[in-house]
């Protein structure tokens, strides 16, 4: 065993433990959610430690021998080799201090190991004096979160692009499939199935653009601002250099915030990003709802489309197949919306020079982005790509719906059209029979006004004198 000390006293740790006393206390204090710190956040903070060590060596604040092993240990963590030792709960008091210290201690002890020293030999390499040199949790943690978000958003943007392409392919595939459009779950006017899927594709396209633009908000870091953004204890050359060095490591065009006090106090950028992810969830949830409605049945529902069967739907009803992929999508969207509320509450409750609730924001924001990424991939690959249309049935419904009378309003007027609709509903006759029986049009006029594809476009015919 080895004994470490802090301001609260001493604590015994396993001789080979990579973490130290600060992490041990955090594990005792914050075992509340069983949620681990997001791996992207750990990777981003590890790269911050590497860039800080590089700059501190160049400026003469860190000995080369010590700096080199700190850099090597930080690289290993960024590559995932030490992330298993980041044990603190994702939800923690202290604005992220426990996460920062867990990373500092693991890097320090791994660096000691690389240098041929025993773990815990902090007289040689110290978690704070060396690994955390010229840093504070308050500039490291939010900067790491912004970088992690950018990485996660890039992945989300890519799967959004794939979903948009799949929806556009369905738009083309179903361009000829005429069906009944519905408003308030009632028959409205004809539309093509392709037009419906084209609208879904357009919604996802807007979301892609929003997400792409919001990355710019995340590229301004307060790294170098230390405790409250004033840069106290950080040399001016370090402040102006560390972000530039980090830019090369993270492969993102980041920059130093013009007002690091603002960037330390206020976390509205994370609320903005979360809101855009929530907006995507709203659109995706709407699409999933539509897919469940349009595929409902197969005999007692809308039955416009067929979703690919993915698993048996009931433990008691033989042959039942449920829209499970769409249902799972709905649930993921609900979860994301709930996470957005948590982020909003955490952001608005920051006080004065710091927001103490960044761990909650980090957990929900990164989880939401990654959950949305996986959900879109599932919906695209397990559902959208293999949807088929019930073309004969959708066409039959169109020609037996009284709603089709709407197409005749420019020709016979609203009042007469209403009479025809009532008669169709009463007699269950199709529109062609009713029109011909009432001598409203001849066959040629009927064919012109009830051309199924013309009905899905603006009216171009001549208006008859009423």
* Total number of distinct structural domains: 3
Task: Assign the CATH class of the largest domain.
Answer: Mainly Alpha
- The CATH topology of the largest domain is given as Fumarase C, Chain A, domain 2
**Sheet with the most strands: spatial strand order:** 1-2
Percent in helix: 55-70%
Overall strand count: 8
> Which structural category do the helix and sheet elements fall into?
mainly alpha
Please tell me what the overall shape is: elongated
The profile of the biggest β sheet is: 2 strands, antiparallel
Question: What is the distance, rounded to the nearest whole angstrom, between the alpha carbons of the first and last residues?
Answer: 98 Å
- The residue ranges in which pLDDT falls below 50 over 5 or more consecutive positions are none
Structure annotation, total helices: 17
The CATH architecture assignment of the largest domain turns out to be Up-down Bundle
> What's the gyration radius in Å?
31 Å
Query: What is the name of the CATH superfamily of the largest domain?
Result: Fumarase/aspartase (Central domain)
User: How much strand?
Assistant: 5-15%
Instruction: State the order of secondary-structure elements, H for helix, E for strand.
Output: EEHHHHHHEEHEHEHHEHHEHHHHH
Please tell me the overall pLDDT. Answer: 93
């Amino acid at each position: 065993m080895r004994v470490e000390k802090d301001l609260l006293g001493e604590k015994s740790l396993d001789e080979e433990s990579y973490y130290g006393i600060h992490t041990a206390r955090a594990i005792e204090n914050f075992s509340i959610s069983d949620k681990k710190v997001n791996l992207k956040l750990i990777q981003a903070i590890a790269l911050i430690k590497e860039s800080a060590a590089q700059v501190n060596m160049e400026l003469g604040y860190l000995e080369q021998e010590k700096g080199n092993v700190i850099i090597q240990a930080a690289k290993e963590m960024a590559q995932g080799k030490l992330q298993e030792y980041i044990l603190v709960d994702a939800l923690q008091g202290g604005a992220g201090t426990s996460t920062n210290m867990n990373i500092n201690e693991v890097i320090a002890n791994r660096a000691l190991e690389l240098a041929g020293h025993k773990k815990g030999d902090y007289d040689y390499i110290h978690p704070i004096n060396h690994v955390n040199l010229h840093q504070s949790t308050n500039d490291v943690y939010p900067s790491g979160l912004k970088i992690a978000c950018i990485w996660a958003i890039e992945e989300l943007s890519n799967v959004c692009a794939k979903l948009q392409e799949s929806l556009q392919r369905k738009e083309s595939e179903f361009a000829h499939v005429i069906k009944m459009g519905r408003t308030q779950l009632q028959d409205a006017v004809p539309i093509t199935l392709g037009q419906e899927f084209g609208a879904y594709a357009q919604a996802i396209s807007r979301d892609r653009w929003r997400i792409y633009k919001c990355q710019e908000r995340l590229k301004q870091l307060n790294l170098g601002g230390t405790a409250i953004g004033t840069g106290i204890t950080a040399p001016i050359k370090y402040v102006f250099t560390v972000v530039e060095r980090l830019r090369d490591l993270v492969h993102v065009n980041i920059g130093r915030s013009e007002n690091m006090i603002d960037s330390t106090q206020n976390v509205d950028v994370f609320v903005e990003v979360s809101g855009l992810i929530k907006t995507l969830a709203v659109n995706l949830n709407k699409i999933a709802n539509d897919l469940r409605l349009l595929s409902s049945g197969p005999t007692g529902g809308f039955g416009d489309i067929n979703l690919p069967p993915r698993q048996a739907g009931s433990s008691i009803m033989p042959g039942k197949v449920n829209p499970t992929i769409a249902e799972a999508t709905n649930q993921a969207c609900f979860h994301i919306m709930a996470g957005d509320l948590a982020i909003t509450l955490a952001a608005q409750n920051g006080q004065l020079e710091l927001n103490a609730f960044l761990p909650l924001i980090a957990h929900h924001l990164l989880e939401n982005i990654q959950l949305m990424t996986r959900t879109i991939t599932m919906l695209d690959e397990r559902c959208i790509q293999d949807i088929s249309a019930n073309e004969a049935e959708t066409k039959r419904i169109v020609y037996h719906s009284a709603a089709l009378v709407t197409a005749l309003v420019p020709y016979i007027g609203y009042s007469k059209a209403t009479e025809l609709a009532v008669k169709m509903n009463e007699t269950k006759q199709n529109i062609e029979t009713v029109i011909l029986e009432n001598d409203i049009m001849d066959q040629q006029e009927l064919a012109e006004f009830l051309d199924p594809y013309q009905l899905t476009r603006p009216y171009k015919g001549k208006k008859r004198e009423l």
